[in-house]
Amino acid sequence: MSIASRRAKRAGDYADRLRVLFLYSTLTRGGAERQLALLVPELRRRGFDPVVATLRHRGPNFEALRAQGVPTAFAAMRSRTDIVGIWRAYRLWRLRPDVVFSSSVDAQVIGQLVAFRARARHVTAEHGGVGIPRALHRRLLVRLVALGVDRVVAVSSSQLPELHRLGFPPARIRVIPNGIPPPLSGRASEAVRAELGVAADEVVALLVATLRPEKRADSFVDAVVRAHAREPRLRGVVAGGGPELERVRSLAAAVPDVVRVLGERPDASDLIRAADVVCLASAFEGLPMAVLEAMACGRPVVATAVGGVPDAVVDGQTGWLVPPGDEDALVDALVAAASAPAERRARGEAARQRYAERYSLERMVDAYAELLVELAR
Fold first, then answer.
1. Which domains, and CATH codes, for the chain?
2. pTM of the model
């Protein structure tokens, strides 16, 4: 039996004693929210007793967990100064959790209060990438709870310096990379490409993201247009909703034969399998789900070397990495990927193998189960 398996077995031996309150500000769409939606059912299957609560918004991941029978609660906080909402959230201590698991600053602060009242341990997870802007009051709130948190989970070692600066003691930081399940087979790639109006000999570069400013989808659109001028087979597709959606749509509308913007899509995995290369042009990241999904589907990645992306994507082996903000380098990488089908296939297969070795859902759940048991003991 491997070390990982023995640890998982030990976690299972104690899991049925552990109630874990997962406290998030929201469970709408996003990588951190989706990670929780994947993690909680797996912990429940291993004997843990999870309860999921949100402060401000429920959203599709909240409803998905509820539909699976996971106990849920909603504090309905209208703002950070909503005293009644804060009181509702604080009363979650009555659930008598053994561990409170929080994410985002509001949940960290309230989670610390709940953990103190319930005499529970407190774990928080940081999914934000290096360089993510934090308002002064948010930094102060994080510093307020940093010394009291029993553990903080980073999804990438690139986050460690920032967590140290925020006041988290180094000995309490645990790096647990995100993980996802193997992709389920969906629609045939040929059918998806036909829907997108893409010919068999054309090369699809796909960006899948919640379209916030830091995702730099505008840079992706510009880079695809410039790369298309050098490699006419290249086409760009953007999938995702968010505050930047309409602006990105307006940019792509000027070049409808080169870039298509699809908006929010429930079939992201089908789109990834139908693409030839998956892209990110982000200014900062933690460990983005789209990169892991691309790897799991055997697709190479063209991305900016930010946050945890270089942990997952090996430049020259599983994809192409470029400096953030260097649009010329992004254009060159897109042209290189579009011009070399054999190289794309080789890097995609290497990406699939790297996913299986490092970023499976089972590996992630093993690590969280071990951490939770360690804390409760």
1. 3-179+360-376 (3.40.50.2000), 189-358 (3.40.50.2000)
2. 0.83
